[in-house]
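Hi everyone, sorry if this is the wrong subforum. Our group has a chain we'd like a structural model of before ordering constructs, and none of us has done structure prediction before. Sequence below.
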Amino acid sequence: MKTDIQRGLVLRNEKCHEHYTTEFLYNLYSSEGKGIFDCRINVLGHLQQGGAPTPFDRNYGTKLGVKAVLWMSEKLQQVYTKGRVFANSGDTACVIGLRKKVVAFSPVTELKKVTDFEHRLPQEQWWLNLRLMLKMLANYQISLTEYISGQMEHVTRRTLSIEKGF
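Answer:
Right subforum, don't worry. Here is the predicted structure as tokens:
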């Protein structure tokens, strides 16, 4: 951890041990790090939003999990030399997800270049070019000569009232 590359990963099953909880491991690594490295907790179940997962969600999550573990095993074999792991290239820290209908691993260094961190969104979003068509289908009164496709429009929130018809 004292080298240029300062990343590590601890995977823990929720039923691995009654005393070695996620909070315990976080506190242990945080106190032992002493400024050399920092820690974060990322419990995958807590990231999930939107209610109960469907069977499709569970199946897809299982497939992504298998691909991630296979990818990690392959990377570990590639960077293992003389009893040590040298994970010092950009493609050793990746995020798995869909990219143009294909499950792909995106290096974090590449994602950093295309991410709007303030709004937690990609800088370019493919669906923005569809907004003109959506407005046409919804019978919005728009001017086609002034409309700029592919730019985010900011909407101001109005107060809701039954008298004004929302």
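For your construct planning: The mean pLDDT is 77. The chain has two domains: 9-51, 54-138.
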